[in-house]
Amino acid sequence: MTRRLSLDEVLRMFARIGFDPRSHSGTHELRCPACSHLRRKKTHKCLSIRCDADGFFFRCFHCDEFHGSYR
Ligand SMILES: [Zn+2]
């Protein structure tokens, strides 16, 4: 299940890790703004984001909190 978000919401979520999905394309692995700082493996890149011409899709493999899409 994927949450549909506005562009503004997506940018605000990613601002916490200084990532602007508008300036990237393809698939990226990042630290998760919601859970990485709480974990022992703080630098583990558990968040996957795909950026393409249609929008963004992202999901954290560790927490259920950080996921969504913008189309
Ligand atoms: Zn997470």
**Strands side by side in the biggest sheet:** 1-2-3-4
Number of domains as seen in the coordinates: 1
- Mind summarizing the main beta sheet? 4 strands, antiparallel
Total number of strands: 4
Q: Which small compounds were modeled alongside the protein?
A: zinc ion
How large, in whole angstroms, is the Cα Rg?
Answer: 11 Å
Query: What's the overall geometry?
Result: globular
Secondary structure category: alpha+beta
| H/E element sequence | HEEEE
Q: Total number of helical segments?
A: 1
Q: How big a fraction of the residues is strand?
A: 25-35%
First and last CA, distance: 15 Å
Q: What percentage of residues falls in helices of 4 or more residues?
A: 10-25%
Average pLDDT, rounded to a whole number, is 94
Q: Which stretches of 5+ consecutive residues score pLDDT under 50?
A: none
Polypeptide structure, described:
The structure is a single chain. The protein has 71 residues and is of the alpha+beta class. It has one domain. Helices cover 13% and strands 30% of the residues. The chain contains 1 helix and 4 strands. The chain has one helix at 7-15; strands spanning 26-30, 47-52, 55-60, 67-70. A 4-stranded antiparallel sheet has the order 1-2-3-4, with no helix packed on it. The model has no long low-confidence stretch (mean pLDDT 94). It binds zinc ion (ZN). Zinc ion binds at residues 32, 34-35, 46, 60, 62-63, 66.
